[in-house]
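Changelog-linked ticket: D-glutamic acid example.
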Amino acid sequence: MKIGIFDSGIGGLTVLHRALSYLPNEDFLFYADEAHVPYGTKTKEEILEYTTGAVEFLTKAGCRAVVLACNTATSVAVTKLREEFDIPIIGIEPAVKPAIAHANELSAEGGRGGRVLVIATPMTAKEKKLHDLVERVDSHHLVDILATPKLVEFAQKGEFNSPAVENYLKEVFQDTVLSDYSALVLGCTHFNLFKDTLSGLFGTQCQLLDGSEGCARNLAAIVEKEGFAKGECGNVTYFSSGEEVKDETRLAFYRQILERLSEMEKY
Ligand code: DGL
């Protein structure tokens, strides 16, 4: 069967990378809305319009399930999309719950800090969805939230540990005591590409967590439950804002990102 994986840009490759390991024989249509990236600084109306357009495109192209591999699009649009479309729409959310469990475990053992920092786009950081989630699971008020929007722009340029990235991170964390945190939640799929740089800053005792594993697992469970016919091909076709990507340089860039994501697994 065909499965759509959608993001504003290359961040969605994080989920594709995981989904391929659960469902190696399905056909994936990866859709990056690169004409409109970044989403995190857009209005809710714009994000809803762009995301609806992409899901429409993917359903017309034959997808029988669509993953919103974008925390920002999930925050704003998942409920409306589930009402509008007759196929499973799988969202992604910041891994706050396992981060709190980890922080609590460490403090029980007398370990460091015990706070949790969620980094996300400005939209995810202010949206009700994240605040509701934190309220449900953060009974000891351990969670802080910080928007780090420029990381999306750096990622789109394939820039992950340049001096400009390092300077930006210094600036954005200038009022944050990094050693307070035993867990850093990557609340935007683009941020997984910076795990080496972030781990360097926060130290190896700080666990880096993201929602892509849970999201891919949900997708695999839905494919199993819905009893979709097993695929046989395992092809991935890439689209950038509705146009199939055929340019070899761009395809090579996507492949490099997937390779980088494999490297980031050790963090
Ligand atoms: N990668 C997306 C997310 O997970 C969106 C980033 C953006 O376009 O601002 O939030």
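Closing comment: Example verified and attached. The mean pLDDT is 95. Residues 44-60 form the longest helix (17 residues).
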